[in-house]
């Protein structure tokens, strides 16, 4: 399957909750771009892969958890673009492999497992040097594409043709929010919904990314970021944690509006937006664009995990 993309589109959501709040609600469907390399994952990978090609690297190395959308997308994109990829996975190997890691292996990705303690050193020069000694010349992409190349790609998600008052998105590393903040025009605001417990620390991460990006000389639509805010209390217990309320919301939203949601990211953000609408958080007449960041592949593994737990 070639790396050919379908242009994402904006889908209006005819929601009773939004109508009662007097707010226009739409979704940016990044999930439809490609079967394997979609959502914000492609935007974060794009300039990393271009740099790797320009510097004549043939091997990619990146990091992620066992259900990582980033691992899944990097394995697919690397294979389609002729790279050998190495995935450094947090934690111990569990066999049989879950659907995410099985797919990565099918795409030719070599999996390496690190203890959680060692994995926490993934952004240090010491671990990078250890990995280069072990694997030779590799182009290292941070977990989630969380670097300036990733931010650069994410500045291309929102265009001037999207004149919404609020841009809402889920946050893991906050790379996507940083890129979107740099592409907002006057009067727009980005609202990020961290999917991790105690996600307030992402505020400092975003500030650092914005400062470093603006100092780097890389292209940016504007010379200063737009307004942004984090909503840190819609994480449902932490990263990849779900409950029946979230599952039911996700399924009902998909059935009603024809927009499938992934449980780890978009379902939590959509739930949070609906909650804010019911609270009257947004003024009447405002327009919201919810960014669907893909990641639907992870639902299969989470549903399998929940089924196992329900049998215990």
Termini Cα gap: 40 Å
Fraction in beta strands: 15-25%
* String of helices and strands: EHEHEHEHEHHEHEHEHEHHEH
Range of helix content: 40-55%
Taking all residues together, what is the mean pLDDT? 93
Query: What integer value in Å does the Rg equal?
Result: 19 Å
The poorly predicted ranges are none
Shape type: globular
E-strand count: 10
Task: Compute the number of helices.
Answer: 12
Return the structural class: alpha/beta
Strand arrangement, largest sheet? 1-2-10-7-8-9
Q: Main beta sheet: strand number and arrangement?
A: 6 strands, mixed
Q: Layout of helices and strands, plus pairs?
A:
Blueprint: E1 10-12, H1 16-21, E2 24-29, H2 40-54, E3 59-64, H3 69-80, E4 84-90, H4 99-106, E5 110-114, H5 116-119, H6 125-135, E6 139-141, H7 148-154, E7 166-171, H8 175-181, E8 189-194, H9 202-216, E9 227-230, H10 244-257, H11 266-279, E10 287-292, H12 298-311
Parallel strand pairs: 2-10, 3-4, 3-6, 4-5, 7-8, 7-10, 8-9
Antiparallel strand pairs: 1-2
Protein model, in words:
- By secondary structure, this protein is α/β, with parallel strands linked by helices.
- It has helices spanning 16-21, 40-54, 69-80, 99-106, 116-119, 125-135, 148-154, 175-181, 202-216, 244-257, 266-279, 298-311; strands at 10-12, 24-29, 59-64, 84-90, 110-114, 139-141, 166-171, 189-194, 227-230, 287-292.
- Helix 9 links the parallel strand 8 (189-194) and strand 9.
- It has twelve helices and ten strands.
């Amino acid at each position: 399957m070639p790396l050919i993309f379908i242009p994402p589109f904006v889908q209006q959501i005819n929601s009773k909750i939004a109508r009662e709040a007097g707010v226009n609600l739409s979704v940016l469907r990044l999930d439809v771009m490609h079967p394997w390399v979609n959502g914000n994952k492609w935007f974060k990978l794009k300039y990393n892969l271009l740099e790797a090609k320009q510097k004549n690297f043939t091997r990619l190395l990146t990091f992620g958890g066992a259900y990582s959308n980033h691992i899944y997308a990097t394995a697919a994109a690397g294979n389609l673009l002729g790279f050998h990829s190495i995935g450094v996975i947090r934690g111990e190997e569990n066999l049989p492999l879950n659907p995410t890691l099985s797919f990565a292996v099918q795409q030719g990705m070599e999996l390496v497992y690190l203890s959680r303690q060692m994995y926490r050193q993934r952004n240090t020069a010491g671990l990078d040097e250890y990995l280069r000694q072990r694997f030779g010349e590799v182009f290292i992409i941070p977990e989630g594409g969380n670097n300036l190349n990733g931010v650069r790609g994410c500045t291309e998600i929102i265009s001037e043709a999207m004149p919404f008052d609020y841009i809402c998105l889920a946050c893991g590393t906050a790379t996507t929010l940083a890129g979107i903040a740099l592409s907002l025009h006057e009067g727009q605001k980005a609202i990020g919904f961290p999917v991790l417990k105690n996600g307030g620390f992402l505020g400092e991460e975003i500030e650092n990314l914005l400062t470093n990006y603006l100092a780097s000389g890389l292209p940016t639509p504007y010379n200063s970021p737009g307004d942004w805010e984090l909503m840190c209390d819609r994480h449902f217990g932490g990263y990849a944690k779900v409950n029946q309320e979230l599952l039911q919301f996700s399924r009902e939203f998909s059935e009603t509006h024809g927009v499938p949601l992934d449980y780890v990211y978009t379902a939590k953000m959509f739930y949070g937006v609906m909650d804010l609408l019911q609270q009257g958080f947004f003024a009447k007449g405002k327009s919201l664009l919810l960014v669907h960041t893909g990641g639907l592949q992870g639902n299969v593994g989470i549903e399998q995990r929940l089924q196992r737990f329900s049998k215990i």
